[in-house]
C-alpha cells in the first residue's frame, strides 16, 4: 500500500498515543512505590530503586536474607533482601508500628524491605544482632544487661498493647546499636507476628510444626495449644538467660533432644552468679502454666524499681518514648 500523507499522520498519532500510555503507566508505578513508603517522624522521602546509591553489603547476611546499607539522597537506609517473596501480612502489620524500640519500616518491593538504617549501626562499622553481640562480648556489665532487657521489654509492651504477638522473640531478632555511644536494643522481624484477633482465622500448622524458633518456643505451643502474649513472655525469659550464658538456650543440642527437654521441662539452669532480680524474672517467665507468667508491664516494673537498676536507664528511655508519642500525636 502506498504511503500517503494521511497514513503517515495516522502512524505518528498512534506512536504518540503508545508513548503517552507508557508514560502514564510509569507515573502510576512511581506513585505506587512512593505510597509504599511509611517514613519515621513524618520525614518525607520519595524513592525509586534507581535513585538508591552507595549500596554496601553488611556482615549480617544469612541463608534467608542479605542486609545492605545504602544512600537515598541525603538519607541512609537499610535494605533487607529476602530469598522468598515478602509476606503481605508482615507489611500490613509492620508499617503501622511506631516505637523507638522497633525498627522503622520505610517501604518494600517484591523481595526487598527498606527500613531505618540507624538501628543497624554498631560502632559505625557493622550490623550486629544480640546473639552476635553476646558471642563477641564476653564481659558485659549488669547495667548494660538491664538496658538491653528494658529496651526489648518496652518494645514488647508496645506490641502487646496493640494486641500483637511477636511469636519469634530471640537474640538474633534484636539489633544492637550504639547511637551517641549509648547501647540500644531494637526489635525486628515480624514475619510470623499476628494480631490476637486473627488467631482463630489462622490455619494451624501441620502436626509437629510450630511458629517460632525451637529454643525459644513455649512448651504449650509444642503441645498444640494456641499462642498468646504469655508465649512471648516465655521467649523473653530465654533471652534474659542468654544475657548471662552468652549462648543460645540448650546450646548445640540436637533438635529432637531440645524438643523433648522443653516438653519435660528440663530447662537450661540459671547460673548462681546471676543477680537475684534476673533469676526471679527468668523463673517467672518460664512458669509451666502460661497464666502464671508475669505480664510484660510487671516485668518492666521489676526491672525499673529494683535497687540494682540504674535510674538513668529507666528515666531516659521513658522520656524518649514520651517524646516519640508526642511527635506522633
Keyword list:
329 residues, alpha+beta, Phosphorylase Kinase, domain 1, Transferase(Phosphotransferase), domain 1, 2 domains, 5-stranded antiparallel beta sheet, two-stranded antiparallel ribbon, 13% strand, globular, disordered C terminus
What is the averaged pLDDT score? 77
**Element string (H = helix, E = strand):** HEEEHEEHHEEEEHHHHHH
What percent of residues adopt helix (DSSP H or I)? Answer: 40-55%
Write down the CATH topology of the largest domain: Transferase(Phosphotransferase), domain 1
Side-by-side strand order of the widest sheet: 1-2-3-5-4
The biggest sheet, with number of strands, parallel, antiparallel or mixed sense and barrel status, is:
5 strands, antiparallel
Count of spatially separate domains = 2
What does this structure look like?
This protein has two domains: 80 residues, Phosphorylase Kinase, domain 1; 188 residues, Orthogonal Bundle (Transferase(Phosphotransferase), domain 1), CATH 1.10.510.10. Helix content is 40%, strand content 13%. Helix 4 runs antiparallel to helix 6, helix 4 runs antiparallel to helix 9 and helix 6 runs antiparallel to helix 8. The C terminus is likely disordered. The strands form three sheets. It has a five-stranded antiparallel beta sheet with strand order 1-2-3-5-4. It has a two-stranded antiparallel sheet with strand order 6-9. A hairpin with a 3-residue loop joins strand 4 and strand 5. The termini are far apart. 34% of the residues are buried. The longest helix is centred in the N-terminal third of the chain and has 31 residues. It is of the alpha+beta class and 329 residues long.
Amino acid at each position: 500500500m502506498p504511503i500517503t500523507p494521511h497514513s503517515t499522520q495516522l502512524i505518528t498519532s498512534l506512536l504518540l498515543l503508545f508513548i503517552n500510555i507508557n508514560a502514564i503507566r510509569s507515573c502510576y508505578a512511581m506513585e505506587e512505590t512512593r505510597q509504599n513508603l511509611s517514613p519515621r517522624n513524618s520525614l518525607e522521602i520519595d524513592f525509586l530503586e534507581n535513585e538508591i546509591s552507595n549500596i554496601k553489603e553488611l556482615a549480617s547476611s544469612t541463608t534467608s536474607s542479605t542486609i545492605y546499607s545504602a544512600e537515598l539522597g541525603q538519607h541512609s537506609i537499610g535494605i533487607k533482601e529476602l530469598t522468598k517473596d515478602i509476606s503481605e501480612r508482615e507489611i500490613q502489620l509492620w508499617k503501622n508500628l511506631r516505637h523507638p524500640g522497633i525498627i522503622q519500616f520505610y517501604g518494600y518491593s517484591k523481595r526487598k524491605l527498606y527500613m531505618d538504617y540507624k538501628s543497624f549501626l554498631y560502632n559505625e562499622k557493622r550490623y550486629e544482632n544480640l546473639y552476635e553481640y553476646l558471642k563477641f562480648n564476653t564481659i558485659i556489665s549488669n547495667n548494660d544487661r538491664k538496658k538491653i532487657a528494658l529496651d526489648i521489654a518496652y518494645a514488647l509492651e508496645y506490641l502487646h498493647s496493640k494486641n500483637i504477638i511477636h511469636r519469634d522473640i530471640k537474640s538474633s531478632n534484636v539489633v544492637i546499636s550504639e547511637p551517641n555511644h549509648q547501647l540500644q536494643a531494637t526489635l525486628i522481624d515480624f514475619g510470623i507476628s499476628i494480631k490476637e484477633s486473627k488467631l482463630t482465622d489462622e490455619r494451624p500448622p501441620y502436626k509437629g510444626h510450630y511458629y517460632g524458633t525451637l529454643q525459644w518456643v513455649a512448651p504449650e505451643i509444642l503441645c498444640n495449644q494456641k499462642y498468646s502474649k504469655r508465649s512471648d513472655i516465655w521467649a523473653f525469659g530465654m533471652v534474659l538467660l542468654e544475657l548471662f550464658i552468652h549462648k543460645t538456650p540448650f546450646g548445640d543440642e540436637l533438635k529432637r533432644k531440645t524438643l523433648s527437654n522443653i516438653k519435660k521441662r528440663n530447662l537450661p539452669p540459671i547460673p548462681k552468679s546471676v543477680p537475684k532480680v534476673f533469676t526471679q524474672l527468668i523463673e517467672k517467665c518460664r512458669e509451666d502454666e502460661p497464666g502464671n507468667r508475669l505480664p510484660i508491664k510487671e516485668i518492666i516494673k521489676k526491672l525499673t524499681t529494683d535497687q540494682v537498676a540504674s535510674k538513668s536507664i529507666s528515666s531516659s528511655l521513658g522520656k524518649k518514648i514520651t517524646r516519640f508519642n508526642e511527635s506522633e500525636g
